[in-house]
């Protein structure tokens, strides 16, 4: 059923869902998903020991006993790094049992050792969302340290909610058949993970993103994690040949690959959130990317959002006007005049007004409706600039058309 819906989505190239799905794939290519994911998985592995040490210390000294802390950390690490979780926890116990002073200095060192992970996450989301890096180094470092606290909170939330989830499902198991019990367990676990990941994305993503978009991103990441979890046995079977090449280091390579796949699920969820957040810009981009867009069904939605209908001889703008908006012709014809003389006509599927937009200068020409009526889409300059910044292909098309029209003005 799900596979059929995905196939239908790929076949239907008319709706916003298709363009959103395509934007997720294009975003992965544009942001170099392989390299971006590799950096996050590396820093996750690098920060895991100090992070688990911090969580173990807080759990065992402030929130619960060490036995409880160890059992819950074992549960979490076995899902993140299943092949080396025992060795990892063994090292954590050895370090924590040493006579070290858990003062502010050591606590601060552990926090700083974890910040490369939060920095990698922050910079990755900035790149995916297309934001600018305006903060100073000190502000970013303080934000990364605070983000470590947030990640610890997510760990604690997962541990304690998962604990109560186990108790709840054990009670449900007494009254439901095994098949329904598994459905209830899966549903509750999916809701739990979606909630945690939605809060996680909300914390790390700076702009005001709609809650629905965060939930969709959290849901996609959670579903990918469940799929990976079910496919882990198959993955281990495929990785048997690694033992011939890496010997005793096989488990480490398996854990790295597994961590890479799991962090990849986070980035894909972030790409979906970014695509949904920029859906308005995403639809507008199709005006420049799709040939004969004025005949495409998506134009109906664009007309509802930005369109207007104009009668003959209507003046869209005059010479010297201060507005910098861009106009796209859907139906009818517009003539561009200078000093009262017609320079060129703009037909359906073409746009006008780009010169004043790019140069931020008053209009040097005027635009008039010459057909009985016309339908135009009006796009403000901020949205156009955003499109040009995000997509070099649109910028290239834009500059080529402007150069061609400038020749007509000379």
Q: Describe it for me?
A:
The protein is an alpha+beta fold. It has helices at about 1-10, 15-30, 35-65, 65-80, 85-95, 105-130, 135-175, 180-205, 210-230, 230-240, 240-245, 250-275, 280-290, 300-305, 355-360, 380-390, 390-410, and strands at about 305-310, 315, 325-330, 335-340, 340-345, 350, 365-370, 375-380. Strands 1-8-3-6 form a 4-stranded antiparallel beta sheet. Helix 3 crosses helix 5 (about 85-95). The protein is elongated, with a radius of gyration of 28 Å. Residues about 1-10 have low confidence and may be disordered.
Concise synopsis of the structure shown:
This protein is of the alpha+beta class and 410 residues long. The chain is 70% helix and 9% strand.
Task: Present the secondary structure layout.
Layout: H1 2-11, H2 16-30, H3 33-63, H4 66-80, H5 85-97, H6 104-129, H7 137-173, H8 178-204, H9 211-230, H10 232-238, H11 242-246, H12 250-277, H13 279-289, H14 298-306, E1 307-311, E2 315-317, E3 326-331, E4 334-338, E5 341-346, E6 351-352, H15 354-359, E7 366-369, E8 373-379, H16 381-390, H17 392-409
Antiparallel strand pairs: 1-8, 2-7, 3-6, 3-8, 4-5, 4-7
Helix pairs in contact: 2-12, 3-4, 3-5, 3-6, 3-12, 4-5, 6-7, 6-12, 7-8, 8-9, 9-12, 13-16, 16-17
């Amino acid at each position: 059923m799900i596979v059929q819906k995905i196939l239908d989505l790929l076949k239907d190239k008319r709706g916003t869902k298709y363009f959103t799905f395509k934007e997720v794939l294009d975003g992965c290519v544009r942001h170099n998903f392989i390299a971006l994911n590799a950096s996050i998985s590396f820093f996750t592995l690098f920060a895991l020991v100090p992070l688990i040490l911090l969580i173990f210390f807080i759990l065992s000294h402030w929130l619960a006993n060490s036995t409880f802390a160890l059992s819950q950390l074992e549960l979490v690490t076995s899902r993140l790094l299943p092949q080396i979780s025992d060795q990892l926890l063994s090292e954590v116990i050895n370090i924590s049992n040493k006579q070290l002073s858990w003062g502010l200095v050591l606590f601060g060192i552990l926090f700083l050792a974890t910040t490369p992970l939060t920095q990698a996450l922050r910079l990755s989301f900035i790149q995916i969302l297309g934001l600018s890096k305006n903060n100073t180094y000190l502000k970013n470092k303080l934000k990364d340290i605070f983000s470590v606290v947030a990640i610890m909170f997510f760990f604690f939330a997962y541990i304690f909610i998962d604990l109560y989830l186990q108790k709840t499902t054990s009670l449900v198991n007494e009254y439901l058949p095994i098949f329904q019990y598994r459905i209830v367990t899966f549903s509750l676990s999916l809701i739990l993970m979606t909630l945690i990941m939605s809060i996680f994305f909300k914390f790390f993503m700076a702009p005001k993103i709609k809650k629905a978009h965060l939930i969709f991103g959290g849901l996609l990441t959670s579903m990918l994690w469940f799929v990976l979890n079910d496919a882990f046995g198959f993955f281990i079977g495929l990785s048997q040949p690694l033992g011939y090449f890496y010997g005793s280091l096989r488990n480490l390579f398996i854990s790295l690959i597994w961590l890479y796949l799991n962090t990849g699920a986070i980035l894909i969820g972030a790409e979906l959130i970014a695509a949904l957040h920029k859906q308005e810009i995403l639809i507008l981009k199709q005006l420049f990317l799709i040939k004969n867009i004025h005949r495409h069904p998506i134009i109906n939605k664009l007309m509802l959002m930005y369109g207007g209908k104009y009668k003959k001889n209507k003046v869209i703008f005059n010479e010297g006007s201060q507005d910098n908006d861009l106009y796209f012709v859907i139906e009818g014809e517009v003539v561009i005049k200078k000093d009262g003389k017609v320079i060129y006509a703009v037909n359906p599927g073409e746009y006008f007004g780009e010169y004043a937009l790019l140069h931020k200068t008053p209009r040097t020409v005027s635009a008039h409706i010459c057909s009985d009526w016309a339908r135009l889409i009006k796009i403000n300059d901020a949205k156009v600039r955003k499109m040009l910044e995000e997509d070099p292909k649109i910028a290239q098309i834009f500059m080529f058309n402007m150069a061609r029209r400038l020749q007509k003005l000379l």
